[in-house]
UniProtKB/TrEMBL annotation, chains A, B:
Cofactor: Ca(2+)
PANTHER family: GLUCAN 1,4-ALPHA-GLUCOSIDASE SUSB, GLUCAN 1,4-ALPHA-GLUCOSIDASE SUSB-RELATED
Domain Glycosyl-hydrolase 97 N-terminal, residue spans: 12-277
Phylogenetic classification of the source organism: Bacteria, Pseudomonadati, Bacteroidota, Cytophagia, Cytophagales
Subunit structure of this chain's protein: Monomer.
Pfam families: GH97_C, GH97_N, Glyco_hydro_97
Molecular function, one GO term: hydrolase activity
Record domain Glycosyl-hydrolase 97 catalytic: where: 295-491
InterPro entries reported in the protein's UniProt record: Aldolase_TIM, GH, GH-type_carb-bd, GH97_C, GH97_catalytic, GH97_N, Glycosyl_hydrolase_97
Protein name: Glycosyl hydrolase family 97
UniProt organism field: Sediminitomix flava
């Protein structure tokens, strides 16, 4: 449908008619608004980009053309929360003409049954080829002073606890919200990161994020807290520019997910659906990973990454065979073999080793360029012996590439480092970017690093390597296109519990925010929450009950999951550990049974290719009773449910290890009313009954 | 010898006693001075470094230790101006102790018979490991308002004409001296680059430079024009820091060469001698190169680097086989074969091809990151056919890697690009860094890029590839250690004549300044100096006579020399071209016969492994008569000299192609009085007579 110059607004609805997107030009300025079931979600909001040294793309437009279309396709992810994902939307593409400069820009809107995605496109044209973005000016005008679940906007870290407050309170709370980190660069008293969760006074949930962040700068949101308008705030480069573009090019999608039902936010597939289909012909080498590793002992300070206590080393010059080992090195051949034994015994896919390679003595806080070579082991880590031992035990090794933020150094070594992995039985790598970025002046989330992370993932695919990137930009659904990007950290994970501790509610918020873009390597499974028991010099503790740690394998979706604790702690609680051994990491179906951000989330997930289900509940600092129905089960089947729950007197602070395990028979008619301790939760494995004999001695729930 | 705290100065002399270096602490501040034959060259000058976020290394020192030593060794360069180089110096190493911080610093002085080198060293120690340099504060206090031959200090280009003025006049002349360039960043009204030539009122020449610039930022000099003190001014990085250091580490050497004889400056080996010996076991693959190439036709605008006239392309997306060629592409298979034929016929080693690869449509001025892939040819350049043709003709191909300053992109492709060279018969590469550096904010001469240039050279050696780096940091003698760094441009070369023109005196200054650090790919040999004859849209001309172009092969020392003009211009003057064919590019001996910076230079050089000599004179814009003796020849031999000189009415502007050739007999007793036109000169090939019959019909000079 073609609308003539300056005339009425363009409108499209979602396939089910629930969402309505309106676009129009107001005095040549593009604006949009979004409503859901008649309720405004995004009020009139401006669109456009401010350019450097050339007229901006903010106004002076006329509509040259509009195109509407529909898309409806169901696709299967290589790994995921569900087997089939339906991508169904109505699309409106508006071609804008900026008369004075003879330039064109397209804004493409896709309206789904649970929200909206839109992006800017710069088609091939004479008058707009190379341009520099000074700032993107995409607004999200909110209809009121919503409750926000936010972390400070920061160009270099996302490792914050969430704050829950009215939007109007963000400014006053910002100073207290900012925390130290190996690399941190906040930018505004009202700047926040995405994905951002909001909840209106009348109980509507809204999520703002982006999808398909490629060759562009990561978007934060700056709040105009007088008018309650969020505006895009891109990450600058070393000289203050926000993006370098060459048309034809598209920006990432900006997404608005909305629902009255919190679970719908969690189950939205908008982010994945806005990404391109899988780019790889062969994905047979991409497999979910359940792993253990030499890591928590260093995080807790029980052992070290470094081999010696030298204050500094020089790769290729320091002869480690001549140095005096500190005796605290974690990644020794013997210790790693112990973990390999444990993994093999308990059915884990892989063993991660951190601290295996030269350079850990002075890896952090020195702005050291040639910090690692990713190839040279310490004298007490025998690459060959580990390789052969793991191979004989049927266990894969997981590589660790800490870069210390020195990305040129990483790229210089990357091919050899990946080949080293292939040669030695490492098919996945945990990469890290701890500390300020080198080249100095760049930020973790700027276009320069977004390009680098992508380069690392695509090159890894050439070697059939899966990548789990920590401290990288938070994901935006790119794993649909590049499924070897199997996870990121890119938020505050379990390690922070060992450093300083984290609020008990943290995992009741993360799925609404961080996980909207992709899975998180949260590294749960801590059974010994009192860190002083591991390292007397620490007085920190993990703000969780043991039962909730089991639940996290279900509530923190990831195809890559670590049983992070020391093996000896699992050996002390083999009955509880059984859940971690049993829990699947790839799913045919997922249901949200209960969800209130900041309070609790309960998921039920069906293990891929089976009739088995797993349920998990994570609970905040308030003791609560969870009430769920098992109506997701097949009506004609019986199941054995093993319920791992908090004891009545459990408490994340005072009595974390008090748990109960009971085995019961369940059917689709079953219901559960389960107490969850403060910082607690429960986990349930639900196995289809194949033989009646299994039911012997068990009662119905 | 150990001196007690605060006592008298330390002094060492050169081996021949001519130079005297004095070091002392003045109120804990290190100072030095240098005299030559009793005449002060450098007055009392401070030493030290200003550090960031930590106490500086500027004062508060005591002398902990001094060590004196002598070194005398003669070594042979892989290629050079002479066969043997004597490295003979007296050394003083002063260990300074900064009490308050318990830190040590060593200043090492080496005094040669023609000057001084000194550097800072930071030994391994507890209290000084990682540090950031805010500014190096090395002074060179001059004894008066000397004449300086200078170019503006600039973090991104050296492609300036030289200014000759009193030091006190630099400030007033700076604005006029600054010229446009694809990338230029000046920093001060009295900032100049090195190497800097000075001449005192009483005729003493002084050169200030640095040697062995590795893992450090390039040094400029800022002049305090009240006190006539030059001080080191390092190139900043994107965030304004000047260097990132990890002890143990040394800085580059700061050099002061001095003599009453201008020729001694030219013949000084201090820069090479201060560099480490050759790092390669095998150097058999490193050979001087005389080449022609598809280049001048693009520089003059006769043809293009690009294949099409598209305003922009995207590598991997633009299908060049579907585009419309402009018909102006220089690097076609046919054209290259023509050059290969010419090279084979006239005994040239190699043919350079520029514009062979996709990406030239939008290579400059766009800040384009993925600008070249260094692998993919345009449709009309057949890599295989060119390879086989060159091989059959016994000619090597010379690769071209223009990076457009996008150094991450170059490094990402470097291994494959070098392997491509090996696979296709290219054993040398001309690399380029035209335009502002990407990562943005970095400069061509900062530590980040110095590290990159070194990386490129060392990696090239793994592939047995020689590197000729244009727009890179000016050399500092590193080719002693890495002799595959066979040349740089890194100054204003012949191409500028085609762009705008260059003062006729330029090549009478360059050997005193730019060439002190290493050879220059000056690309001389232009026979048709009127560019409008090649491209009617240009009105520029080369400020030279034809005869002077021949001389440059002798006066502009380089193991890599181009006959840069179009073959058809050589074919019009085959008699003159004979000199270029005959001239050697590697030498057993070199003599400076006449030298006055800014006016003229005359060299005589002995071709390696022969008894043949070549003489060259370059002359400024004033007609002059050169008077030389041939007493460098063997007393017991006869030689045939072919003298290529300006005709009496030659003039670089009005009559450049008027030259004369005469063949005469010469001996060690011969003398020559030869007229040189404005912008002129002469070249002489002197061949040992092997058979008396050669003398028939010839007269004595």
């Amino acid at each position: 449908m073609l609308f003539t110059l300056g005339l009425s607004a363009q409108s499209i609805k979602s396939p089910n008619g629930n969402f309505n997107l309106t676009f129009e030009l107001k005095d040549g300025v593009p604006v949009y608004q979004l409503s859901m079931g008649g309720e405004p979600i995004v009020k009139e909001s401006k669109l456009g980009l401010e350019l450097k040294d050339t007229p901006s793309l903010l106004g002076g437009f006329t509509i040259e053309n509009t195109e509407e279309s529909t898309f409806d396709e169901t696709w299967q992810p290589v790994w995921g929360e569900v087997k089939d994902i339906r991508n169904h939307y109505n699309e409106l593409a508006v071609t804008l003409n900026q008369k004075e400069t003879a330039r064109k820009m397209i804004i493409r809107f896709r309206v789904f049954d649970d929200g909206l995605g839109f992006r800017y496109e710069f088609p091939e044209q004479d008058n707009l080829i190379y341009f520099v973005i000074k700032e993107e000016r995409t607004q999200f005008a909110m209809t009121g002073d919503h409750t926000a679940y936010w972390i400070p906007g920061d160009f270099d870290t996302q490792e914050y606890e969430y704050n829950t407050s009215k939007m109007s309170e963000i400014r006053a709370l910002m100073a207290g919200a900012m925390r130290g980190n190996a690399s941190t660069t906040t930018f505004s008293d009202t700047g926040v990161q995405t994905s951002l969760l909001l909840k209106t006074d009348n109980g509507t949930f809204i999520n703002l994020h982006e999808a398909a962040l490629i060759e562009y700068s990561c978007m934060h949101l700056e709040l105009d807290d007088e008018n309650m308008i969020f505006e895009s705030y891109l990450t600058p480069d070393a000289v203050g520019n926000k993006g370098y573009m060459q048309a034809p090019r598209v920006t990432p999608w900006r997404t608005v997910i909305a629902s009255k039902n919190a679970g719908d936010i969690l189950m939205s597939h908008i982010t994945l659906n806005l990404n391109e289909p899988c780019a790889y012909d062969d994905t047979s080498w991409i497999k979910p990973v359940k792993y253990v590793g030499v890591w928590w002992e260093m995080i807790t300070g029980k052992s070290d990454w470094a081999y010696t206590s030298l204050p500094a080393v020089q790769l290729g010059k320091t002869d480690f065979s001549e140095t005096t080992p500190s005796g605290r090195h974690g990644a020794t051949t013997e210790n790693v073999k112990r973990y390999i034994d444990f993994a093999a015994e308990h059915g884990f896919d892989a063993v991660l080793v951190e601290g295996w390679n030269e350079g850990w003595e002075d890896w952090i806080g020195k702005s050291k360029d040639y910090v690692f070579d990713f190839l040279t082991p310490y004298p007490d880590f025998d690459v060959d012996e580990v390789r052969e031992y793991a191979k004989a035990k049927g266990v894969k090794m997981m590589m660790h590439h800490e870069t210390s933020g020195a990305v040129r150094n990483y790229e210089r070594h990357m091919d050899k480092a990946y080949q080293f992995m292939v040669d030695n039985g490492y098919n996945s790598v945990k990469s890290g970017y701890v500390g300020n970025i080198i080249p100095r002046g760049e930020h973790h989330y700027g276009q320069w690093l977004v390009n680098h992370y992508q380069y690392a993932v695509e090159k890894a695919a050439e070697y059939k390597i899966m990548v789990n990137a920590h401290e990288a930009v938070r994901p935006t659904g790119l794993s649909r296109t590049y499924p070897n990007l199997i996870a990121n950290e890119s938020a505050r994970g379990t390690e922070y519990e060992a450093f300083v501790g984290t609020k008990a509610e943290h995992t009741t918020i993360l799925p609404f925010t961080r996980l909207i873009g992709g899975p998180m390597d949260y590294t749960p499974g801590i059974f010994q929450t009192d860190i002083s028991k591991i390292n007397p010099d620490r007085d920190t503790f993990v703000h969780t009950t043991l039962a909730r740690q089991l639940a996290l394998y279900v509530t923190m979706y990831s195809p890559l999951q670590m049983a992070a604790d020391l093996p000896e702690h699992y050996e002390q609680h083999m009955d509880a550990f059984q859940f971690i051994k049993d829990v699947a990491i790839d799913w045919d179906d997922t249901k949200v049974l209960e969800a209130e951000p900041g309070d609790f989330i309960t998921y039920a997930r069906k293990a891929k290719g089976t009739e088995n289900w797993f349920v998990g509940r994570t609970n905040d600092e308030i003791g609560r009773t969870s009430k769920i129905k098992f109506d997701f089960l097949d009506a004609d089947k019986k199941y054995i449910a093993t319920i791992y729950s908090d004891a009545k007197d459990a408490h994340y602070e005072t009595n974390p290890q008090a748990y109960e395990i009971k085995k019961v028979i369940v059917t689709s008619k079953s219901k559960l009313s389960q107490y969850c301790a403060p910082g607690g939760g429960y986990a349930i494995s639900i196995m289809e009954v194949k033989d009646k004999s299994e039911l012997k001695g068990l009662k119905r729930l």
